[in-house]
UniProtKB/TrEMBL annotation:
Keywords: Membrane, Transmembrane, Transmembrane helix, Transport. Gene3D superfamilies: MFS general substrate transporter like domains (1.20.1250.20). The chain crosses the membrane at residues 21-41, 47-70, 82-108, 128-147, 177-196, 216-238, 250-269, 355-376, 388-410, 473-492, 504-524, 558-578, 598-617. This is Major facilitator superfamily (MFS) profile domain-containing protein. It is a multi-pass membrane protein.
Length: 633
């Protein structure tokens, strides 16, 4: 986390990734050698091990310059496939690593002597020596006569921009800093949720399914292996998938949406609470039974060999008494510990839930982490990306550091509902933000419903037609003024200007105007300006002689209401279809540019809207009371 931005900045300053990578690989080999030779140190072996892990962390910061080089050495259209292949290689490392660890267990704890019984090759030190050999091999692969650096992205941008040098090219292409920081935050949230599940999986299965530590490690190893294979398949599918569907859509729906489902599925759905691990002393003191053998609750798997105690939450059967010496033998109780208060009140999780949620995560995470990196590199453009990639890598490392803290505070104190509810909301909020907030904008426009409902509430029956026509006139005025403003904004152009990292151009300026309009609207709805009225209810009470507004309600004529609603839907369908088709038709048929299309269509729509204003303003004054007007009212 600390060194990733620094190493990325170093690579930018040098203009080459070779020296940072060679130094990090050398440091990786030295640190792995220290770990493998811990028994040579007569004292402070734990501190030497911590020091070796610190150096491993520093050497791992080379991931930032690797990602930076990947962006520099590929064309834009090649980048998604290249990033997915590198992510696949990393995932294969997670698969092969445990396999190698399992293979070296044949050396046992004693192993083979390497240096007069002072240094041994055993099941613990073998992994360190494997890392030393791999570090040396990688070091050789990055030497000048093997590895040749290429800067394809900068040359591609030079050709497209018609520039003479790389520096001129990337200086002329200003990155969208808001999008860059959004992707960094999204990367943090994505990695945090994945690492959190990775950290929580073993204690969660032990709490929910009353597995022993051995069972949890064994079954989770198989589950994670299958998940890694599934993730590897997804890495291979990302590139062809993005050739058919836009990357942003694949990221939102294939990555974040599946991660949201993975968190939501973990909300407890079992019919009974989890197995409760009673406090050891109280359990053993209370157990009285002729058979003195420890009671073992059978788990979901039949072959259980354990001297640990499992107890149902609602266990009311025979109880056994153990000898005092047996208390020391029973180290742990299996199930959800009662020190976690939520274990007594929360419903349990089923094994099916756990597997489905893990499958969603195994599919969504590789899609998300690959496409965030890909889109991030495209947002930054052809400029050197070492520092920025270092910041993104650091955000992922920070999420790994915060995962255990979140586990100890939220899961142990508040339980499953808060844990997976909060992470699901976290992922959903990030997904909506990546969706450019169009969803939130759509929700905000539902205020039209409240406005129309209030017009019916705050007007007499004789006034309602005129009030509705004035409201429609105001809305139509907005449709008239909006295109005029949009046409005027087209003079700003696509590039516009940068203001504190934000791009102000012909597209974004409309959003700022809407923000100002929204603030003004909120001020006008302040209680000192807007007073709520219920005139229609008072009129109905006076006419019918009722004392309560609810007594004046009459059965609704549902057939008439649905007829009007369907007619309104068909009308709006054709209106919106024409409005949507105007822009692409003008671009295709008349060869207009985007600026010309916005300008001329703004004038055209304004003319049509003014005609609509004239008809909306033709108030009937409430004098027409035929059946259709009655239905509308």
């Amino acid at each position: 986390m600390i060194f990733s931005p620094l190493v990325g900045w170093w690579g930018n300053r040098l203009g080459s990734i070779r020296l940072p990578l060679l130094c990090s690989l050398a440091l990786f080999s030295i640190a792995s050698g220290i770990y493998a030779c811990l028994e040579l140190f007569p004292t402070h072996q734990k501190y030497w091990m911590l020091y070796s892990r610190f150096l491993i962390g520093v050497s791992s910061s080379s991931v930032a310059v690797c990602r930076s080089y990947l962006s520099a050495a590929t064309k834009v259209k090649e980048r998604t496939g290249a990033v997915s292949m590198v992510s696949l290689a990393q995932t294969l490392g997670f698969i092969v690593g445990p396999v190698l660890q399992g293979a070296v267990t044949m050396f046992g704890e004693d192993g083979l002597p390497l240096m007069k019984n002072k240094l041994h090759l055993n099941m613990y030190t073998a992994t360190g020596w494997i890392n030393v050999l791999m570090g040396i091999l990688n070091f050789c692969l990055f030497l000048p006569f093997v590895f040749k650096e290429k800067r394809i992205a900068a040359r591609e941008a030079m050709m497209l921009q018609g520039m003479q040098s790389e520096k001129e090219t990337w200086k002329s292409m200003k990155p969208d800093y808001l999008s860059a920081w959004t992707l960094i935050c999204a990367f943090f949230i994505l990695v945090f949720n994945f690492v959190f599940l990775e950290t929580l999986a073993t204690p969660l299965t032990m709490d929910m399914f009353a597995w022993t530590k051995g069972e949890a490690l064994y079954y989770m190893a198989w589950i994670m292996a299958v998940g890694a294979i599934l993730a590897s398949a997804m890495f291979l599918m990302i590139d062809p998938l993005c050739k058919r569907i836009p990357e942003r859509q694949v990221l939102i729906w294939g990555g974040f949406f599946l991660m949201v489902l993975g968190r939501a599925v973990y909300i407890p759905m079992s019919d009974r609470p989890p197995k409760l691990a009673l406090p050891e002393n109280e359990t053993l003191a209370a157990m009285r039974m002729e058979d003195t053998s420890p009671y073992v609750y059978g788990s979901n798997f039949t072959d259980v060999r354990s001297n640990l105690t499992r107890v149902d939450f609602d266990y009311g059967g025979p109880i056994t008494t153990l000898e005092p010496f047996a208390v020391d033998d029973a180290k742990d109780l299996l199930g959800c510990p009662p020190t976690q208060e939520w274990c007594k009140t929360t419903r349990g999780m089923t094994i099916t839930q756990f597997l489905i949620g893990y499958a969603f995560t195994a599919i969504g995470y590789p899609i998300g982490v690959t496409l965030i990196t890909t889109i991030f590199s495209k947002v930054l453009g052809p400029r050197p990306q070492g520092t920025w990639m270092g910041i993104m890598t650091g955000s992922g490392c920070l999420s790994r550091a915060l995962g255990p803290v979140f586990l100890s505070t939220i899961y142990t104190k508040y339980g499953l509902y808060w844990t997976f509810g909060s992470t699901a909301v976290m992922m959903a909020a990030t997904m909506l933000w990546l969706w450019q907030m169009r969803f939130v904008f759509g929700v905000s426009t539902s205020i039209n419903t409240l406005s129309r409902a209030y017009i019916s509430t705050a007007t007499k029956l004789s006034e309602r037609t005129g009030a509705i026509s004035m409201s429609s006139l105001a809305q139509t005025f907005g449709l008239a003024i909006g295109p005029i403003i949009q046409a005027a904004l087209s003079m700003i152009g696509k590039d516009g200007t940068m203001w504190y990292g934000l791009r102000i151009n012909m597209y974004t300026m409309a959003g700022w105007i809407c923000s100002i309009g929204g603030v003004v609207y909120i001020i006008l709805l302040n209680p000192s300006c807007f007073v709520h009225r219920t005139i229609a209810a008072q009129e109905a009470m006076k006419t019918s002689g009722c004392s309560k507004a609810t007594d004046t309600y009459e059965p609704l004529k549902m057939f008439s209401i649905w007829t009007v609603m369907i007619g309104y839907s068909v009308l709006m369908f054709f209106y919106v279809s024409v409005q949507t088709a105007l822009s692409p038709i003008s671009l295709d048929q008349f060869g207009w540019s985007h600026e010309e299309s916005l300008y001329y269509l703004g004038i055209l729509i304004t003319g049509g809207t003014l005609c609509s204003c004239a008809s909306s303003g033709n108030d009937t004054g409430g004098k027409q009371h035929d059946s259709y007007v009655g239905i509308v009212q």
